[in-house]
Amino acid sequence: MRIAVEYADIAQRMTVVRLDRHGLTANIADDATLPQLGLPRAARVLCAGETLCELRLVPRALVRAGGRSLELTMQPSRIDDDLSFWQAVYARRHLYPDVPARGDHADDRPNRSSEAWHSPQPEISTAESASAATCSRAAFMLSTANEALFFSEWLEFHFAELAAHARAMASPSNLLDLDRRRTDATVNVAFIYRYSCNSNAVHRATDELCARMAQEAEQCFGVCSRYELLDEQKDLAPPDGRLRSVPSAWQPGRHSN
Fold this sequence. Notes:
- The two termini are 14 Å apart.
- The chain is an alpha+beta fold.
- Strand 2 (13-20) and strand 3 (23-28) form a beta hairpin.
- The strands form 2 sheets. It has a 6-stranded antiparallel β-barrel.
- The protein has 2 domains: 3-95, Thrombin, subunit H, CATH 2.40.10; 115-236, Alpha-Beta Plaits, CATH 3.30.70.420.
- It is built from 4 helices and 11 strands; from the N terminus they run E-E-E-E-E-E-H-E-H-H-E-E-H-E-E.
- The chain has helices spanning 79-91, 145-157, 159-168, 199-221, and strands spanning 3-7, 13-20, 23-28, 41-47, 50-64, 70-76, 133-141, 175-183, 186-194, 226-229, 234-236.
- Residues 100-123, 238-257 are annotated as: Disordered.
């Protein structure tokens, strides 16, 4: 699926090259008229040349990618803008690229190797444990591979919301990262927390986050899923903290498989 953004007061169509936890990122020309950062503006999102939805987008960051093209990152202004966007995406999920056949494997992880999925897990010394992280895994089972792809993309986009919810729980947890792997209609998710000696707290945090995600997906999109916690949490080396891009159905010329 290829999408583009047009601001109402700027006569330029910007192709979205990345959709991840930072927002919608588009390439723009050096001589383009730039929207003012931080201010919500009326915009429309297009798919295959047709309007996908209309909403208010906030330009958040402007960077030069690899010393070449400029990239503008935008985010929905309000909760209703976010919901309108994702409901429109779900309604057009049939435009996703071909997803793997049953039994094939698709990787929705970032473009870096993830220790969350390595087995066996590395040993961590007492001296290192203060800066280590804890990983807990879960699997979401959906009805189709297309719904699994949508669910995986939606999770990544809302990472900040999940991290905020984890901090606000009765037993607060610091969610550092999450990685996703999709096989057919199943999305495996690794939740990476700041190191905790309380294994029960990590288990409860993962269970509560999974329940919240499953409930919200059903309420907002009618996407039904069931989940299960896969194993006991594992200790990991801490994530590097760098910004990252995720292989996505939104990147021109790229498939998630």
